[in-house]
């Protein structure tokens, strides 16, 4: 089954795996506190990966490898590129934090992150149910370990435990669903499943039974209500650098998983999973935004905000097939992709600021810890404000463009129900806006408890500035990224 | 780059520049850059007046570039007789506000000045945008600087006011966004406002869209009963914030009715005109009465703003030439007058640090020059002939009488109410014996304040004595709008 394209399709994965192993070995011989070898090599690896996947994506070919086990298309390559960027950014933001907290002196953080990224890559490229599952496990296993990296820290260990138990349950759900589908269709290959389901010969009941579990698994990974319980605890309990790691790139993987499983594999069942997504979206928007308002802990607030944002992503996913036209579907999925990508960008910056404010022995996690940030550092206050206004969907920031594109995909289907959903979504984001505004209020209107200026390494300061500026620039000129998402989705739908 | 782009982006660019000048030692430099920047930004709007062609309802100074190609969103700018004056008014008021904040603001001066300059550019953008998304972006983005202005430089209860302002107006705008996207889908993927004007829509659609847009514009105007945020915000906002809010931001909502509701939804507008007229009359009469009993000067002027804006919406929804142009004139006049009123209160507040009417008395004997200005603005607020306030009110009342005698009669009571609350406040603050030490120690206005108030005084008198330039510019667009609203879109 190994043809000449097989290796071409998985070059990025090969590079990543080899380098991750090499870094794990080299790190053993590095005794420095900041683990400079692992840091530099990891960043180099990621830069190579970004370039490699970026070039692959720009070439725009669809390559199937290993007898159709993996696919390397535009969507896969762009998502890989963005997740590599996300991890690289997280490395820069988290380096000081990890070094100061002696998380096994830091080296493991880099290596585990790379392994987790490997899982992300496999998930994104998978063209086979089993491979998706393998990628997922690789990604989350590394995640469990990372959350527990501060093994002397009670909340971290507790969070890791919760993450592990609930994550294992989610995997179980997914695996169960996949096995049902396998039983019904007799194949694990995504395109074969699609063809089998499309014949209409297979018993609908069995398929839907499997589908329910698959959707539950996807919802778990996204953290949609009612499968959201782990998100706030893990976001809050994990060391912030790890929160950043599991809050960013894995969202892209979850998106890829949803697209591969549900759109590429089970599109003929769209009428069923669409409704489920609708309900999940309603619940997520409601719970996420409402509960976010009540939080005093910033990481927890951002966790609930994630849940609310996932509601929007699901609205985009569900709008896909209802229009009935391929154009409508491409429009909806690309708007969801745009949403995920820009959301990850916002997450990076907001958690980056939290990391920046944390000092040794002091976690800057409470919202009140940001008091008077504007007086201590107008730049960082502005970056955080940009993140928050973007999450609230206020123009001209990118969060607005993302919400706009999802809403227009939803309303363009022409269903009155969807119009109602859109109104519901905007009302919920109004409630969410209150939660975000509260943080802005603390930063700008309250007096600081300490006037000590904020120290930041130059690389972090520069990257945070670029990251914050991107939210504004992409909000004003979203065209390129939108087109990129649209092209990727159109190509994916075409094959 | 066209003149409109320049008018929008120049203040924003200068504001961004100010943000980079962070040092506290550079305060004086910051002030001068802000002043010169706002002056230049005002000057670049003047060529618009010279170049404006009268007698055509077409959009002028049009700029149209593709912005977000995927959604067919364009960077489409243009002004007609309806929006034209607001561009100039916004740029003008920004200069005044920069002067007003000159010595008063001592904390974070660069951020203060930057917020007002950026706000100015964004508001000009609202008046120039001919694309739904572009309009929405500018419309919403104004919330961010205003929220910060209220929250950072406001009074003791500023945080409550800032939240109330943000969330109230956001709620309205979000529903408007849904309406816009619906129109986009109905127009086969076009966000072009002029295309929407010609779009056929069924009665149900029009009604739904009408109320979605009403949510946005009524809150912004603000119309009774969603006006409650305005007094709270005015009381807490710094002087400059109040002035800009009253002078320009309230106009965004009224402008929305003319640009969106009336031409896009003519049938719904006519069908629900009774509601709009009713709400407007309540604003004029009931809120006028509320203003009468206020103890706080800023609150009084805030309620008076609501009442005056009631006149504007009343004028719009009687659909005749006098009503609509009267409403527009009233909007501009209210821009000058209410801006001036708030700045006058600011002058007193800077000295005594109280806005309570009872904390003053006999100010005239200590500040004769200032009182002269204050008297002029108070008279304009009552609608005395010869001042800006008179022209618009008179036109609207005439239009209302033409529409229905009784509505005209009710609207005219506003003149009595307006005169009562304004003059009563004026009497208690400025006349009578000097009641306390604070007033005894008052010093008359300095050169900066004199300049600021006299510029506004000239504007108020000019508009009251010779309003022709204002009405001439509007005429063709208003006529066209009346035609649009008269033609049914059904069948």
TrEMBL record, chain A:
What range does the record give for the signal peptide? none
Report any one BP term from Gene Ontology.
Answer: ATP synthesis coupled electron transport
Q: Which GO terms describe its cellular component?
A: endomembrane system; plasma membrane
What keywords are annotated for this sequence in UniProt? Cell membrane, Membrane, NAD, Quinone, Translocase, Transmembrane, Transmembrane helix, Transport, Ubiquinone
Cross-referenced InterPro entries, in alphabetical order?
NADH-Q_OxRdtase_suN/2, ND/Mrp_TM
Major location category of this protein: membrane
- The residues covered by the NADH:quinone oxidoreductase/Mrp antiporter transmembrane domain are 126-428
User: Which reactions fall under this protein's catalytic activity?
Assistant: a quinone + NADH + 5 H(+)(in) = a quinol + NAD(+) + 4 H(+)(out)
Q: A GO molecular function for this record?
A: quinone binding
Q: What class of enzyme is it?
A: translocase
Q: Name one Pfam family in it.
A: Proton_antipo_M
What is the topology of this protein in the membrane according to its UniProt annotation? Multi-pass membrane protein
* Localization per record: Cell membrane; Endomembrane system; Membrane
EC number(s) stated in the UniProt entry for this protein: 7.1.1.-
Q: Which residues cross the membrane?
A: 6-29, 36-55, 75-94, 161-184, 204-231, 252-271, 277-298, 310-330, 336-357, 378-395, 415-437, 469-490
Tell me the protein family, please. Answer: Belongs to the complex I subunit 2 family.
Describe its assembly: NDH-1 is composed of 14 different subunits. Subunits NuoA, H, J, K, L, M, N constitute the membrane sector of the complex.
The record describes the protein's role as: NDH-1 shuttles electrons from NADH, via FMN and iron-sulfur (Fe-S) centers, to quinones in the respiratory chain. The immediate electron acceptor for the enzyme in this species is believed to be ubiquinone. Couples the redox reaction to proton translocation (for every two electrons transferred, four hydrogen ions are translocated across the cytoplasmic membrane), and thus conserves the redox energy in a proton gradient.
Query: What name does the UniProt record give this protein?
Result: NADH-quinone oxidoreductase subunit N
Organism whose genome encodes this protein: Ottowia oryzae
**What is this protein's gene name?**
nuoN
TrEMBL record, chain B:
Tell me one Pfam family matched here: Oxidored_q5_N
In terms of InterPro entries, this protein maps to: NADH4_N (IPR000260), NADH_Q_OxRdtase_chainM/4 (IPR010227), NADH_UbQ_OxRdtase (IPR003918), ND/Mrp_TM (IPR001750)
Tell me which domain of life the UniProt entry assigns to the organism this sequence originates from. Bacteria
- Any one GO molecular-function label of the UniProt entry: ubiquinone binding
How this chain sits in the membrane, per its record, is: Multi-pass membrane protein
Q: Which GO terms describe its cellular component?
A: endomembrane system; membrane
Task: Tell me where it resides.
Answer: Endomembrane system; Membrane
UniProt keyword annotation of Membrane present: yes
According to its UniProt entry, one GO biological process term is: ATP synthesis coupled electron transport
Residue ranges of domain NADH:ubiquinone oxidoreductase chain 4 N-terminal in the record: 61-122
Q: Keywords on this record?
A: Membrane, NAD, Translocase, Transmembrane, Transmembrane helix
Residue spans crossing the bilayer: 6-22, 29-49, 82-102, 109-127, 133-153, 165-187, 207-230, 242-260, 272-293, 300-319, 331-349, 370-391, 403-426, 447-465
**Limits of the NADH:quinone oxidoreductase/Mrp antiporter transmembrane domain:** 131-413
The record ties this protein, via PANTHER family, to: NADH-UBIQUINONE OXIDOREDUCTASE CHAIN 4
As for family, the record states: Belongs to the complex I subunit 4 family.
Q: Which NCBIfam families match?
A: NDH_I_M (TIGR01972), PRK05846.1-3 (NF004499), PRK05846.1-5 (NF004501)
Can you say what this protein is called?
NADH-quinone oxidoreductase subunit M
Q: What is the lineage of its organism?
A: Bacteria, Pseudomonadati, Pseudomonadota, Betaproteobacteria, Burkholderiales
């Amino acid at each position: 089954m190994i043809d000449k394209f097989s290796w071409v399709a998985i070059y990025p994965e090969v590079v990543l795996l080899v380098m991750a192993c090499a870094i794990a070995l080299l790190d053993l011989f590095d005794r420095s506190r900041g683990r400079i070898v692992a840091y530099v090599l990891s960043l180099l690896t990621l830069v190579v990966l970004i370039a490699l996947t970026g070039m692959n994506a720009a070439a725009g070919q669809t390559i199937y490898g290993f007898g159709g086990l993996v696919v390397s298309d535009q969507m896969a390559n762009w998502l890989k590129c963005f997740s590599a960027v996300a991890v690289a950014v997280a490395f820069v933001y988290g380096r000081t934090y990890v070094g100061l907290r002696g998380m096994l002196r830091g080296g493991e953080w880099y290596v585990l992150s790379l392994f987790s990224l490997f899982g992300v890559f496999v998930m994104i490229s998978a063209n086979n149910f089993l491979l998706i599952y393998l990628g997922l496990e690789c990604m989350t296993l590394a995640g469990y370990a990372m959350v527990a990296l501060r093994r002397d820290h009670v909340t971290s260990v507790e969070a890791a435990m919760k993450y592990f138990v609930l994550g294992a349950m989610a995997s179980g759900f997914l695996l169960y669903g996949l096995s049902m589908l396998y039983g019904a269709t007799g194949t694990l290959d995504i395109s074969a499943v699609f063809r089998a389901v499309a014949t209409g010969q297979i018993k609908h009941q069995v398929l839907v039974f499997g589908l329910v579990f698959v959707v539950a698994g996807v919802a778990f990974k996204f953290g949609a209500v009612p499968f959201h319980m782990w998100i706030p605890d893990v976001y809050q309990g994990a060391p912030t650098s790890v929160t950043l790691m599991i809050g960013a790139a894995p969202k892209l993987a979850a998106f890829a998983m949803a697209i591969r499983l549900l759109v590429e594999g089970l599109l003929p069942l769209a009428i069923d999973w669409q409704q489920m997504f609708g309900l999940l979206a309603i619940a997520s928007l409601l719970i996420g935004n409402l509960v976010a308002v009540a939080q005093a802990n910033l990481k927890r607030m951002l966790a609930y905000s994630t849940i609310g944002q996932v509601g929007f992503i699901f609205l985009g996913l569900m709008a896909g097939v209802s229009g009935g036209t391929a154009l409508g579907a491409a429009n909806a999925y690309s708007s969801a992709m745009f949403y995920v990508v820009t959301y990850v960008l916002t997450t990076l910056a907001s958690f980056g600021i939290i990391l920046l404010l944390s000092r040794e022995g002091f976690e800057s996690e409470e919202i009140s810890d940001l008091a008077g940030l504007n007086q201590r550092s107008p730049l960082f206050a502005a970056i955080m404000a940009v993140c928050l206004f973007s999450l609230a969907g206020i123009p001209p920031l990118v969060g607005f463009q993302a919400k706009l594109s999802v809403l227009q995909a939803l309303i363009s289907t022409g269903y009155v129900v969807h119009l109602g959903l859109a109104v519901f979504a905007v009302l919920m984001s109004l409630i969410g806006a209150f939660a975000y505004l509260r943080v802005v209020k603390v930063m700008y209107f309250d007096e600081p408890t300490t006037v000590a200026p904020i120290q930041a390494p130059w690389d972090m300061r520069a990257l945070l500035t670029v990251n914050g500026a991107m939210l504004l620039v992409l909000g004003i000129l979203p065209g390129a990224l939108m087109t990129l998402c649209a092209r990727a989705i159109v190509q994916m739908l075409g094959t | 780059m066209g003149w409109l782009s320049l008018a929008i982006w120049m203040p924003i660019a200068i504001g961004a520049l100010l943000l980079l000048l962070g040092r506290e030692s550079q305060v004086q430099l910051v002030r001068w850059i802000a002043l010169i920047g706002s002056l230049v930004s005002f000057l670049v709007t003047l060529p618009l007046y010279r170049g404006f062609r009268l007698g055509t309802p077409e959009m002028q100074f049009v700029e149209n570039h593709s912005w977000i190609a995927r959604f067919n969103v364009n960077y489409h700018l243009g002004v007609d007789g309806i929006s034209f004056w607001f561009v100039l008014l916004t740029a003008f008021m920004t200069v005044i506000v920069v002067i007003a904040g000159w010595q008063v603001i001592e904390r974070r001066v660069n951020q203060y000045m930057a917020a007002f300059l950026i706000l100015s550019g964004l508001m000009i953008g609202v008046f120039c945008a001919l694309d739904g998304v572009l309009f929405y972006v500018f419309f919403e983005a104004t919330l961010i600087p205003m929220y910060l202005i209220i929250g950072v430089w406001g009074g003791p209860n500023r945080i409550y006011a800032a939240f109330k302002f943000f969330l109230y107006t956001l709620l309205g705008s979000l529903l408007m966004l849904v309406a816009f996207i619906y129109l986009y889908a109905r127009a086969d993927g076009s966000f072009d406002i002029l295309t929407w004007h010609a779009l056929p829509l069924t009665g149900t659609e029009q009604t739904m869209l009408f109320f979605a847009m009403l949510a946005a514009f009524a809150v912004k105007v603000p119309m009774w009963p969603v006006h409650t945020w305005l007094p709270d915000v005015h009381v807490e906002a710094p002087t400059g914030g109040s002035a800009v809010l009253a002078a320009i931001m309230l106009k965004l909502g009224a402008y929305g009715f003319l640009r969106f509701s009336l031409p896009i939804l003519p049938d719904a507008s006519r069908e629900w005109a009774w509601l709009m007229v009713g709400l407007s009359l309540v604003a004029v009469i009931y809120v006028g009465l509320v203003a009468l009993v206020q103890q706080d000067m800023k609150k009084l002027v805030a309620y008076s703003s609501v009442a005056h804006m009631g006149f504007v919406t009343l004028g719009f929804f009687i659909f005749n030439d006098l009503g609509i142009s009267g409403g527009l004139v009233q909007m501009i006049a209210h821009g000058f007058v209410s801006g001036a009123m708030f700045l006058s209160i600011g002058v007193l507040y800077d000295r005594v640090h109280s806005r309570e009417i009872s904390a003053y008395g006999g100010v005239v004997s200590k500040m004769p020059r200032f009182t002269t200005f204050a008297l002029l603005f108070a008279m304009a607020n009552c609608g005395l002939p010869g001042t800006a306030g008179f022209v618009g009110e008179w036109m609207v009342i005439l239009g209302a009488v033409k529409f229905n005698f009784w509505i005209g009669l009710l609207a005219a009571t506003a003149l009595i109410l307006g005169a009562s609350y304004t003059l009563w406040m004026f009497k208690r603050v400025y006349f009578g014996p000097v009641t306390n030490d604070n007033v005894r120690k008052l010093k008359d206005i300095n050169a900066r304040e004199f300049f600021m108030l006299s510029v506004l005084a000239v504007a108020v008198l000019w508009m009251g004595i010779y309003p022709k330039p204002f009405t001439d510019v509007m005429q063709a667009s208003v006529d066209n709008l009346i035609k649009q609203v008269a033609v049914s879109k059904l069948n």
